[in-house]
Amino acid sequence: SDSNALILTLSQGPCKNVITVIQKFQDSLFVCGTNGNEPQCWKLYSQMPNHTLEIVESYEGTGLSPYVYSQNALSLTVEGDLYSAAPLYSDGSSLQFRRKAGSRTNVWMYDKWVTEPTFISACWVRRKEEPDNEKIYVFFREKNSDSSPEADHWISRVAQVCKVDEGGSKRFLQNMWTSFLKARLVCGIPNDSLYFNRLQDVYVLHAEEWRDSRVYALFTSSW
């Protein structure tokens, strides 16, 4: 096969390489796929004038793409940095939100900060007047530590990290988020005792003034 061409073929049976990430990244198109349970990424540059894409670099894709398409994953690019949540192991474990590539230090979460998360969405909220205070927000569900019968098995969350976070010192939180905070998301009609605790999807409507931005979310009930 030609190493400078990305060839897609149709065949019977399951596809061995399912594309899971497509992001504009550092003046190129960054594409990742499952690659037969060995995640791989490719950097594509446009060839003018016919706009065909040429593979110029390839990367090992662990932590950027899941091993199989059914595993949970997400990605986000912010000013030349690539953020992702994808399992580090083929069994789907060690799933966490990381800054995985770019000009800034690679940082990640401490595994015990979240419990069996399902990541839904991530977004960057700009603050033109305060760029050092810009945040990245992550929306997800995690397993509820309360095992009582009346408790929902899942808790919906929003977490924030600072875009300029470079991780801690060699003694404390080295290469880990130092600005990570999470809060519970609650949706319901308390007077009717109706609660919709399972976050399913998120859309962020950005505004010129960051305080005017709006987050729309879709929730379902546990039943």
From TrEMBL:
InterPro entries: Semap_dom, Semap_dom_sf, Semaphorin, WD40/YVTN_repeat-like_dom_sf
Organism domain of life: Eukaryota
Gene3D superfamilies noted in UniProt: YVTN repeat-like/Quinoprotein amine dehydrogenase (2.130.10.10)
Domain Sema residues, every copy: 1-223
Key words of the record: Glycoprotein
PROSITE patterns: SEMA
Name this polypeptide is given: Semaphorin-7A-like
Gene: LOC106590787
